[in-house]
Design goal:
alpha/beta; Peroxisomal Thiolase, Chain A, domain 1; Malonyl-Coenzyme A Acyl Carrier Protein, domain 2; Alpha-Beta Plaits; 27 helices; elongated; PKS_NRPS_Biosynth_Enz; Ketosynthase family 3 (KS3) domain-containing protein; phosphopantetheine; fatty acid synthase activity
């Protein structure tokens, strides 16, 4: 059997019509069965001058409606990308949108720009429209200076590679409506061959001028009402839509090793071509579509019986929909029954046909369905196209949300995308949780950063424990692994723990915008909400502090609970600007005796890396014949501890300082000088834990 390593989707971002720009908004739209078609916006062109709704007429647009992005399409954060106005003015809005969307996808993947720069990260962008070129070439006397690099299709990908200093292959893909999914297929091949370590897959589509809509109307591609009536009897063409989508991909083994979030797994990708078809180049081939499905599963040794959701191309055309439905039914026929059908969906009924972006839009929808375990309903669906024998083929077109069938051992789904010239692509995706649980990971869908944090440390009940030391416990029987002898929560874990939160932005006002966003997000949570507990709070702080690009403007505050996030504006410091070009030398100063106090360093036990360091020091001290327990002596109860006695204080201080050095190294902080005073020279010269012997004997 062929083993194909799954590809992990570690990040994604999108801008879809009707304000569907966040997962929650997009999912809400899907579950509410909303179609977001509107009349062509006046800031694009005057649709009244080009539309003709009284039948087919060459040189006109069939419908007055389409699916458009919210807001002004010209908006672009040029200062963030350090671009001059005269260059931006000549840039296709698709370049602008892809740059912003790619950055958001990197953030969603917890990847920093400084980490990505210079890496073998490839970029594959699918697109097949060029309205901005048409606009700028209308008058050859007004073509801008930077038109060549502002409108070339290749620059859609190259601009991303240049801006983020990505050194892998960079390509623009045009196979018509299947462009972005073909781009994904090429990206996966690059990962499998080792040509890239990370890939960016993007898709873009913007409607600016009437010419291409007229061209599509002339061919009879567009529907009379500007909507996609996918698989419905009234389907007579598709409704155009615009949008952006970006995925960040990585081999699953590397994603797990690097602690990346994992949204879903791409199990297999396949492509083919219809070849010659009767009726013309735009006529689809049922035979080649069905063959592609089977071959895509076979080459990765995947079983079709697990698939119960199929995100179809489903444009709403009279010929295309029945052809695709029959191909799906034939490919899965022996695995289906009336009681256990395969569910068919088409996101085009919600947001329109995004053309070059449509394939990735289908993938985004499927990822969200896999994560939530719910199959979304179809929109604009009333009566099944009579050319589709759904009863015989055991196909179901849901009109309300359906819980994922329990008969499916694996949550698996398929996605189709076809180009009007016959370029076909098929993708198989699995939910992340099942695969990762099989590998021994406890999370569902995402690798939690707190899990990654603790993954750097060995078990606190490790095998290195000396035979005469049978416990890894703290004061009064409180276990360091989270429970005491009575089985209740550890006294340390239950205490409020301060967390340093750092926010940064490329401009002074950006910090305030982040505060507003975070406060709004937490306003709906309560302190005891199970979905967001202290572990998730740690994940968030860890992500904001270490998995976000640090910009010039920075603010900080200390948070202890979810409630603190609701009032960040009251506790956050004023933004301070520090240039990233400035190099600051960092030094570590180690104190001697006299600075210790009851409870010194006890809160460090909250950090797994420090906890492991202190327990290791405790084991080593015990192996030297030490008759007391380090963790007990660090407890803040000053009556019970002997922190003032040199016999204890020197070893305690050295152990705490070693734990702090371990923490500094774990966080990747670079220091150029160390200074020690008195017994602090022991920790300053720390090379191995054996230095504790010096501190113990010296005391």
């Amino acid at each position: 059997m062929t083993h194909v390593e799954p590809i992990a989707v570690i990040g994604m971002a999108f801008r879809f019509p009707g304000g569907a720009e966040t997962p929650d908004k997009f999912w809400k739209m899907l579950m509410e069965k909303r179609c977001v078609a509107i009349e062509y916006p006046r800031d694009r062109f005057n649709i009244e001058a080009f539309s003709h709704t009284g039948g087919k007429k060459l040189g006109t647009i069939t419908a007055k409606h389409g699916h458009f992005l919210d807001g002004d399409i010209k908006n672009f954060d040029s200062s963030f990308f350090s671009m001059a106005p005269h260059e931006v003015g000549a840039m296709d809005p698709q370049q602008r949108g892809l740059l912003e969307n790619t950055y958001h996808a990197f953030e969603n993947a917890n990847l920093r720009m400084d980490e990505l720069a210079g890496t073998r990260t490839s970029v594959h962008v699918g697109c097949f429209t060029s309205d901005f070129v048409t606009m700028q070439f209308r008058d050859d006397q007004t073509i801008p200076k930077y038109n060549a690099v502002g409108t070339a299709g290749s620059i859609l990908a190259n601009r991303i590679s240049w801006t983020f200093d990505l050194r892998g292959e960079s390509m623009y893909v045009d196979t018509a409506c299947s462009s972005s999914l073909i781009a994904l297929a090429l990206a996966c091949k690059g990962l499998a061959s080792g040509d890239a370590d990370i890939v960016v897959v993007g898709g873009s589509n913007i409607i600016l001028v009437p010419e291409f809509s007229i061209s599509l109307s002339n061919m009879g591609f567009l529907s009379s009402n500007g909507r996609c009536n996918s698989f419905d009897a009234k389907g007579d063409g598709y409704g155009r839509g615009e949008g952006f989508a970006t995925l960040i991909l990585k081999p699953v083994s590397k994603a797990i090793a690097d602690g990346n979030p994992i949204r879903a797994l791409i199990r297999s990708v396949g492509t083919n071509q219809d070849g010659y078809t009767n009726g013309g180049i735009t006529q689809p081939s049922k035979h080649m579509q069905a063959k592609l499905i089977r071959e895509t599963y076979e080459k990765a040794s995947l079983d079709l019986k697990h698939t119960r959701f199929f995100e179809a191309h489903g444009t709403g055309t009279a010929v295309g929909d029945p052809t695709e439905a029959r191909a799906i039914g034939e490919a899965f026929f022996k695995y289906l029954s009336k009681a256990d059908p395969i569910y068919i969906g088409a996101v085009k009924s919600n947001i329109g046909h995004l053309e070059g972006t449509s394939g990735l839009a289908g993938v985004v929808k499927v990822i969200m369905a896999l994560e939530r375990g719910i199959i979304p309903p179809n929109t604009n669906f009333e009566t099944l196209n009579p050319q589709i024998d759904a009863e015989f083929l055991n196909l179901s077109f849901p009109t309300k949300g359906v819980p994922w069938p329990k008969t499916a051992e694996i949550r698996r789904a398929s996605v189709n995308s076809f180009g009007f010239g016959g370029s076909n692509c098929h993708v198989v995706l699995d939910a992340a949780d099942g695969y990762l649980h099989h590998l021994g990971h406890r999370h569902s869908g995402h690798i939690l950063l707190s899990k990654m944090l603790s993954g750097f440390t060995p078990s606190l009940n490790g095998n290195h424990s000396p035979a005469n030391d049978q416990r890894d416990i703290g004061y009064n029987g409180c276990s360091l692994n989270g429970t005491n002898s009575e089985g209740s929560s550890d006294c340390l874990v239950d205490r409020p723990q301060p967390r340093l939160l750092i926010l940064s932005s490329s401009d002074e006002g950006g910090v305030g915008r982040q505060i507003k966003s975070l406060s709004h997000s937490f306003s709906t949570l309560n302190d005891c909400q199970a979905e967001f507990g202290l572990e998730q709070l740690d994940d968030l702080v860890f992500t904001m502090n270490t998995r976000r690009t640090m910009f010039e403007w920075k603010s900080f505050c200390v948070v202890e609970s979810v409630a603190d996030f609701r009032n960040l504006s009251d506790s956050i410091s004023n933004p301070v600007r520090s240039s990233s070009k400035e190099k600051h030398a960092v030094g570590l100063v180690f104190t001697g005796q006299g600075a210790q106090w009851p409870g010194m360093g006890y809160e460090l036990l909250y950090w797994p890396i420090c906890r492991t360091s202190l327990v290791s020091s405790q084991h080593y001290l015990r192996s030297l014949g030490c008759c007391w327990y380090l963790i007990d002596e660090l407890h803040p109860d000053g009556v019970s501890t002997r922190h003032s006695s040199p016999e204890y204080s020197q070893a305690m201080t050295t152990a705490v300082q070693i734990a702090l050095v371990d923490l500094v190294n774990f966080l990747g902080l670079k220091y150029s000088v160390v200074v020690g005073h008195s017994s602090g020279e022991i920790a300053a010269a720390f090379e191995s834990r054996e230095r504790l012997a010096v501190a113990l004997r010296n005391g």
